[in-house]
Amino acid sequence: MKFGRIATAEALGAVLAHSVPLTKGRLRKGHVLSAADLEALQAAGQDTVTVAQYETGDVDEDTAAARLAEALAGSGLRISQAATGRVNLFATGLGIAQINVAQINAFNAVNPMITVATVPPYFRVDADTMVATIKIISYAVPEQDVDQALSAARASLSVLPAQFATATLIETQIGPTPSDKGRQALHGRLDRLGLTLTSRVIVPHTRDALAHAVQEATGDVVCILTASATSDINDVGPAAVREAGGSVAQFGMPVDPGNLLFLGYYGQKPVIGLPGCARSPALNGADWVLERVVCGVTPTPADFAKMGVGGLLKEIPTRPKPRAEI
Q1: Which letter, b or e, does each residue of 195-227 get, where b requires 16 or more Cβ atoms within 10 Å of its Cβ?
Q2: In terms of Cα–Cα distance, which of 222, 180, 178 is closest to 198?
Q3: In this structure, are strands 114-118 and 130-136 parallel, antiparallel, or unpaired?
Q4: What is the CATH number of the domain that holds 281?
Q5: Which of 57, 103, 195, 303 is the most buried (most CB within 10 A)?
């Protein structure tokens, strides 16, 4: 593509780079100049004009953006119409964004004029949430670069819907019946993903009682909120999951608030031991794990380790010991 100021008389078929006022009205940037446009420009005293001119092998911005969007979009995404070199990808329903980071990086490395910006990996989305925007910065790009970019990142974006329909929250009790604050917070989290919370379950804060409740839980996913914080992988919560016949895959995570989470399984059911901060609706590490697990993504120890970068979340106002005072 050639770009620059040329004689108006030579600009037939070129793309106007900047809006230009006429005697009546104006021609807007991005407009492909016709013979009538050239006459109007000259009548307005515009003897030269700044334009982009396609060369052999170029693809115009809208065509390029549309082709790339089709290549990038996997399941669960809706593609907008191309305009001014931009196409947006929107979620078609509830879920989390699955993004192949290496492919997206390769896409953006092909040509600085060919770009895609996305939400973070595993970002929770609703229907019509924008997941990505593809933008061709120049008025045209070489077709060979378009082909290279789409090959680098084909189907690298998608939305994973929830894989489960219900969840059971087991709360343990020491002393009075616990407040329903934690249950209400979890209800909000699950509702955003389309899951239903089963009837309330409260048991004594003992390993045996909790193990029995895990075995009897009817939900597809089991969440545990203990009256006392889980301090060790052999504490009541994780020990109860193992006593029930399940397993514990992870205790602790490098996300704050949310350090004291554990993840296990009872048969095919995920079991999430919620940290105390999950009683608040504020974002915490439990959100990251719950959303992924519900949408069929099993975090591995390596995945947990990677959560530390960006894992320092906003302080909870009601936290007994704000970090600033430690």
Answers
A1: bebeeebbbebebebbbbbbeebebbbbbbbbb
A2: 222
A3: antiparallel
A4: 3.40.980.10
A5: 195
Domain count, the chain: 3
- 229-283 pLDDT, tens digit each: 999 999 999 999 999 999 999 999 999 999 999 999 999 999 999 999 999 999 9
Q: Are residues 179 and 298 in the same domain?
A: yes
Domain boundary residue among 160, 194, 209? 160
The per-residue pLDDT for 216 is 98
pLDDT digit string, tens, across residues 106-152: 999 999 999 999 999 999 999 999 999 999 999 999 999 999 999 99
Let me know if residue 270 belongs to a domain. yes
Beta pairing partners, 167: 197, 221
Asked if residues 293 and 274 have their Cβ atoms less than 8 Å apart, the reply is no
- Among 172, 204, 194, 285, smallest CA distance to 183 is for 172
Model's pTM, two decimal places?
0.90
∠ CA 6-12-18, nearest 5°, is 55
Start-end of H helices in 217-316: 236-243, 285-294, 301-306
Last residue of a domain, one of 53, 68, 91: 53
Q: Do 116 and 31 belong together in one domain?
A: no
- Do the domain assignments include residue 325? no
Do residues 41 and 70 share a domain?
no
User: How many Cβ atoms sit within 10 Å of the Cβ of residue 289?
Assistant: 28
SS3 283: coil
Angle between helices 101-108 and 143-152 in degrees, nearest 10: 170
The 10s digit of each residue's pLDDT in 9-59 is: 999 999 999 999 998 899 999 999 999 999 999 999 999 999 999 999 999
Where in the sequence is the domain holding 197, given as residue range(s)?
166-320
Q: Which residues pair with 97 in a beta bridge?
A: 159
Report the alpha-carbon distance of residue 258 to residue 220 in Å, rounded: 23
Q: What is the DSSP letter of 10?
A: G
Task: Kindly state whether residues 177 and 126 are assigned to the same domain.
Answer: no
Q: Name the token pair of 30.
A: 């991005």
What are the pLDDT digits (tens) for 154-185? 999 999 999 999 999 999 999 999 999 999 99
Same domain, 45 and 69: no
